[in-house]
Amino acid sequence: MSATVVALLVSHDGARWLPTVVEGLTSQTRPVDRVVAVDTTSRDESPQILTEAFGAVQTAPGGTGYPAAVRIGLEEVDRTGGADWVWLLHDDCTPDPGALEALLAAADARPHADVLGPKLREWPSLRRLLELGVTISGTGRRETGLERGEYDQGQHDDVREVLAVNTAGMLVRRDVLARLGGFDEQMPIFGNDIDFGWRASAAGYTTLVVPEAVVFHAEAAHRGVRRTPLTGRHIHYQERRAALYTLLVNASTRSLPWRVVRLAIGTFVRMLGLMLVRQVGQALDELAALVSLYGSPRLVLRARRERRRRGAGTSGVEPLLAPWWLPYRHGLDVVSDLAAAATNQAADVAERRRIAAGKPVAVVDEEDPWAEEQGFVARFLTNPVAVGGLLFVALALVGAREAFGTVAGGALSPAPAQAADWWRLHLESQHALGQGTSVPAPAYVLPLALLGSLVGTATTVSLLLVLAVPLTFWGAWRFLRVVGRLLDEQGPPAWLLFLGATTWALIPAASGAWGLGRLGVVVAATVLPWLAHAALGFADPEPDRRWRAGWRTGVLLALAAAFAPLAFWFSLVLAALVVGAGFYVSSRGMRDRSVWGPPAVAVATPVVLLLPWWLPALLTGSGAGLALDAGRLPMAAVDFADLVTGHLGDAGAPDTLGLMLLAVAVLALVPAATRIPVLVCWIVAFAASLVAVVLGLFTFEADAVTTKAGLGFLVLVIQAGFVVAAVVAAQGALHRRRAGWGRRALVGVVLVASVVPLVGLGWFVVYGPGDLEDSTDTGIPAYMMQSAELGPEHGILVVEGSADTGLTWSVQREDGVTLGEDEVVGLMAADPTLGRDVGRLVSSPELEAAATLPGHGIEYVVLPSPADGDVAAVLDATNGLEQASAESRTTRAWRVAEPVEPGAVAPETAWWRVVLVVLQGLGIVAVLVLCAPTQRKERR
Q1: Cross-referenced PANTHER family, in alphabetical order (predicted)?
Q2: Which of 45, 515, 606, 705 would bridge with 558, disulfide CB 3.0–4.6 Å?
Q3: Collapsing DSSP states into helix, strand and coil, what is residue 716?
Q4: Which of 455, 462, 466, 460 is nearest to 444 (CA)?
């Protein structure tokens, strides 16, 4: 007696596919014995089509999931006589005429088979493979083992055991469905096939894929062609929740803790990747799916108990799961795809530019695989500009030789031992510096901590200094090239770009910022050309590109302002001038939000991203930090002559170079054809000079130091404006191709201008290191520094000066004052109680001042070389101090007799600080997402 087969068809708004499905079902070479149709309250003609084809239709509410619909259909199957096999079909899948016959033939040939599935092909293409059995990876990815878009050529036509088969065309024994309890209703639409197959394999049943049986599947719900009350717009949420649920409820008890942690971490990694490609909706779906399950542990535990009750084990499942290494291979594939896409895009852009410029396109000999590489090398070696650029970078690295390895000196404090020190400084609301202070950590500590976590603290500082000139050169080249093409389609010649980019790249070195160790000015100089390049997007004709330019400019401005706060104030002034001029010229055009909005976004972004810095700075009275560059105080004094010649005080290259650049920028005003863009450059330089002059009138006083504002960034802007003006004017004059004295004058000016980068580069190679060195000696004995690292209560009181000229004191804690802490120490208020006790300590040996030192968290007292003899004699006679050894004969040291008091000075992290840092992190992620290109999905 042949087996009885009942086809169970579930439908919801499937009228567009059902006629073909009905035709495929009724044309089977081995006809089904009966058809049971279940419709979940379709809003189209689906019920009528099913009724005409098969008679009675079982109706379910519109929100009924697929497992519940199958259960309703099975009840009808049992009521009408039962069945040996149940053939599950969707309303968007149509079987090949021989599908059922092939499935039953495989079942007869393999009596142990309990669940069988067909080969799924894409509908309507009919040739592309969708699935030949499925499994799941450890991260919840649905694995088919097929390449994307792979065509069916018979390459996978072997009957084999798999973890699961799709419910579209699944043939399953009726008694197996009953013993396993059907499909899990916690997965109403997606993923229930893998869960069912996992439970079947765990219970000892066998699932086979039969490639000879073919079913065509439209995947309407997965592709978003059809929306149901169960998915709505959040298809990804349902798919991801089903994947997480399947892994959690079916995992072994031993592997469950690891799986819980792995899925949580993997979810956040996937969210970050999705947001970087601006798939914010899917990223939120990922988080919602995780929260839905992790917030309802009873749901998972109840499902696990149900599976144990039905006797499900794990012994037969492991070989059918995806290999453990597969998710990592997918990750490498994604990275390689992105790299290939970026490379191909860059090559296409370069090729289009060559075609637009009328240059010959390189032809590669397909028979010679090395032809392209050889052609590139030949072009590079025969291009004087390319060779010159390589030589320039090499000489710049020679000039930066002192920054290789550990570097400190001048205004640059040594880097801390670990990136964790920077993270701790960023998170603390009360720092264990001196006697404790609430002055916030400077904003640049966060980017330093991020980079330091990847490459180390000392390497971070070294990289920022070593790569400053090459990265500035690259950014200046890109910016000047775009500016030149905005003025003329041909753009500037390569040698002019090289001349302008090298001059711009040497500005931070020639100004003295590099040699003085002004890390903030150096980093701001590196960011400046990239910031200017991003700001050019404000003129893009497409609103979407203008908005993205606004966000990108805002991110780069926030980075520059973190190291050089005046970058923000100058940008605010410049944005006001640009927007005001726009309203003056065309008030109607400026009313469009996509015109004035991007500049507003650009200047508002740093306010949000740097919130944990500037808000506490204002509230704690340390707002002077909003006008100071990164590094030790005081700032270099900059007068008007320094602004004009591009110097930070007395440091930097000879003044002649700055005056030559100024002269070339003045001559750039002569050509009438380029006078307007040159005037724009001069206006930018004038605005920077005006801001610098105004800020130069103020003096910032703190207990530890008195300083002027940090004008280094404004010096850079002025010099960069001169460079751009000179390049623009030279480009215009070259394209006019004047003859006679005009061309000779232009050649003379260019020759004079070329002296600036040549001499500047030579000066940097010879004198570049300046005050930088690879030594971090503090003059304090090493054993004292080792003791200080035990905790902030093991402080070292350092007294400098003499009784005749006056004494100053400071307290060293842990590993000393490092980069980031130096600015906090310079801005914090002195402790009057400790100041009074130190005064008593060095003035009279009879007073018991030493007894107060443990309460201040001080274990040692040091008079660095050369120690004042009178002060040393007083400390020798002071009760409570014991002489300690010093590494130098002219350095004197004492140890406090009383033991230190634990917790005398301790850092704190207030709740409001945590809130600010969390908001900052969310803001950074959101802005980075908005900076990414808009991705538009095409639906079939």
Answers
A1: GLYCOSYLTRANSFERASE (PTHR43685), SLR2126 PROTEIN (PTHR43685:SF3)
A2: 606
A3: helix
A4: 460
pLDDT tens string 206-258: 999 999 999 999 999 888 888 777 766 788 899 999 999 999 999 988 888 89
**For residues 411 and 174, what is the distance between their CA atoms, to the nearest angstrom?**
80
* Cβ–Cβ < 8 Å for 567, 574: no
Is there a contact between 286 and 270 (Cβ–Cβ < 8 Å)? yes
Q: DSSP of 426-490, one letter per residue?
A: HH-SBB-STT-B-PPPPTTHHHHHHHHHHH-HHHHHHHHHHTHHHHHHHHHHHHHHHHHHHH-TT
At residue 165, the pLDDT reads 97
The per-residue pLDDT for range 344-383, each reduced to its tens digit, is 544 444 444 444 444 444 444 444 444 444 454 556 556 7
- Judge contact between 213 and 96, C-beta under 8 A: yes
Distance, in Å, from the CA atom of 463 to the CA atom of 472, rounded to the nearest integer, reads 13
| Consecutive H or E run containing 566 | helix 566-585
Q: How far is CA 526 from the centre of its chain?
A: 19
Q: Which domains does the chain have, with CATH numbers?
A: 5-232 (3.90.550.60), 458-767 (no CATH), 782-896 (no CATH)
- Could you give the CA distance from residue 254 to residue 96 in angstroms, rounded to a whole number? 44
Q: Are 509 and 712 in contact (CB under 8 A)?
A: no
Type of residue numbered 175: D
Q: What is the CA radius of gyration of the chain?
A: 37
**Which of 454, 453, 444 has its CA nearest to residue 421?**
453
**Share of the chain residues as helix, strand and coil, in percent rounded to the nearest 5:** 55, 10, 35
Residue environment code for 213-234, b if the CB has 16+ CB neighbours within 10 A, otherwise e: bbbbbbbbbbeeebebebbeeb
Question: What does the alpha-carbon distance between residue 34 and residue 38 come to, in Å, rounded to a whole number?
Answer: 13
Tell the burial category of 536 from Cβ atoms under 10 Å away from its Cβ (0-12, 13-18, 19+): middle
Q: Cα-flanking dihedrals φ and ψ of residue 647, to 5°?
A: -130, 155
Rounded to an integer, what distance in angstroms lies between the CA atom of residue 143 and that of residue 133? 9
Cα–Cα distance for residue pair 411/727, rounded to 1 Å: 33
Whole-angstrom distance, CA of residue 413 vs CA of residue 517: 8
| Region class of 912: left (phi > 0), else alpha (psi between -120 and 50), else beta | alpha
DSSP state of 830: P
Torsion angle in degrees (nearest 10) through CA of 549, 551, 556, 562: 160
